[in-house]
Design goal:
Largest sheet: 6 strands, mixed
Strand content: 15-25%
Number of domains: 3
Strand order of the largest sheet: 2-1-3-8-7-6
CATH architecture of the largest domain: Alpha-Beta Complex
Number of helices: 14
Helix content: 25-40%
Number of strands: 18
Distance between the termini: 69 Å
């Protein structure tokens, strides 16, 4: 009888991941693919290029889950230890696989190159295991068993890992019959995670089905819904429909999108629907807001361009901010008045329907002490303004937490949130991190 895969663990290998030098994108992708077919990932593990730690992780997981998918460590160099870890964890020894060796040799031959001796090690496998062909690189995958778990080891590069999973792993998986997993996600802006959880109330009871949880990242709080059980797909989707409707009702105007929606894409869609355009003028964010906007394909249909006015002289020359605003005893570059002048100048000079402007102190230096004429402006103080040709302006003061990168990210996302409020016809309510002037 085929091995049934009910639970899975995803093991990501590499010093660059454990040290935070590289973001692991394989783990989330694999988790989604497993979830889609009804196999529940219960653990994500990251280990360095260390044989003892890698083998220990495989040995432990082999007695706790039905399926292990490991990525990385299959290259030809001395720090690529997945083959050795597989053998050690399964009390086996390595042997050379003639078919795998032929595949590696063919890879180099097809490129008119002689195979370096070091690559011969990529054809090794545990004697009781098997290799998986890799048509996009030199690293064959591995397939074997450790404890009660079936194990698949795949190369780390996504361009090799993903096709190998689809062609050589997915057909071998055996999810439990009569059990499905379905998920949805709603995205909110302008409300903190604890306040959102309070609004959702009993919907977040961990004994309910579908399960509801929240996660926060970069100013966006997401509501995650998951059905896991024996219901037919149609019934599971109906249960999620009901749960989603209730979650949307409770979260109200803070919900801006679902699934893969990004706030910038939602704003661009609203602009296109209205036949309107957007410009930006940025100081402390240095073009970050414009980068977020132009990540969306087709953004040129609504986004006309932006000005990065970092120095005061640029604020005057490019956006037309009066010198009296910037110079003492005026309110200064970090002020609502300056943000409004930047937005008005950008809207006029770039001939846009709307303009967003950001000016502030991202840190770690630059805090301004209180004076007779000016209030204190600590690091994280940011003013954001929106101007629109068909509506009055909106300028707000924020106090963002964290380091320079965090302040800049919060500012750019908050600017998009302010414009989304306006375009969606919502009340211009106070949002997260907004403070009184």
């Amino acid at each position: 009888m085929p091995h049934e895969h009910t639970t899975a663990a995803i093991l990501s290998v590499g010093d660059e991941i454990t040290l935070g030098q590289t973001l692991d994108t394989n783990g989330p992708w694999l988790a989604q693919r497993l979830r889609d077919i009804g196999i529940v990932p219960v653990e994500h593990v990251t280990v360095p290029d260390n044989l003892a730690r890698h083998a220990a992780a495989l040995r432990r997981l082999g007695h706790e889950v039905d399926l292990i998918i490991c990525t990385g460590g299959l290259g030809p160099t001395a720090d690529d230890l997945t083959r050795q870890a597989m053998a050690q964890a399964s009390d086996d020894s390595l042997v050379e696989d003639p078919l795998a060796l032929a595949q590696v040799e063919a890879f180099f031959a097809a490129r008119a190159r002689e195979m370096p001796t070091i690559n011969r090690g990529q054809a090794h496998r545990p004697s009781r295991g098997r290799t998986l062909p890799n048509l996009n690189g030199t690293a064959p995958g591995l397939h074997g068993t450790i404890g009660t778990a079936e194990v698949f080891c795949l190369p780390g590069p996504p361009g090799e890992m993903k096709p190998m999973f689809e062609h050589h792993v997915l057909p071998r998986l055996n999810p439990p019959s009569g059990r499905i997993v379905r998920t949805r996600v709603l995205h909110c802006f302008g409300i903190g995670e604890s306040d959102l959880a309070t609004r959702l109330g009993n919907l977040m009871d961990r004994t309910r089905s579908p399960l509801v949880g929240t996660t926060a990242s970069g100013g966006v709080v997401s509501i995650r819904l998951r059905y896991e059980g024996p219901a037919p797909a149609v019934e599971a989707e109906a249960l999620l429909d009901t749960c989603e409707h209730e979650a949307r009702s409770l979260a109200g105007e803070f919900v801006f999108g679902a699934g893969e929606d990004r706030l910038s894409a939602v704003v661009l869609r609203l602009l296109r629907e209205r036949g309107e355009t957007l410009a930006c003028v940025e100081s402390c964010t240095g073009g970050l807001l414009e980068a977020m906007i132009t990540e969306t394909p087709g953004s040129s249909a609504a986004f006309v361009g932006g000005l990065v006015t970092y120095a005061n002289e640029a604020k005057t020359e490019l956006a037309g901010v009066p010198a009296a605003v910037l110079e003492f005893p005026g309110p200064g570059a970090v002020s609502a008045e300056c943000a409004l002048e930047m937005a008005a100048g950008g809207m006029d000079r770039l001939k846009a329907s709307h303009c967003l402007a950001i000016t502030g102190i991202a840190g770690p230096e630059g805090a301004v002490a209180a004076t007779t004429n000016r209030a204190a402006k600590p690091v994280g103080t940011v003013f954001i303004a929106r101007t629109s040709r068909a509506a009055g302006p909106d300028a707000r003061r924020f106090q963002f937490p964290g380091d320079r990168s965090s302040v800049r990210s919060w500012a750019a996302v908050s600017a998009l949130g302010m414009l989304r409020q306006h375009l969606a016809g919502l009340p211009l309510v106070r949002v997260l991190r907004q403070v009184e002037p």
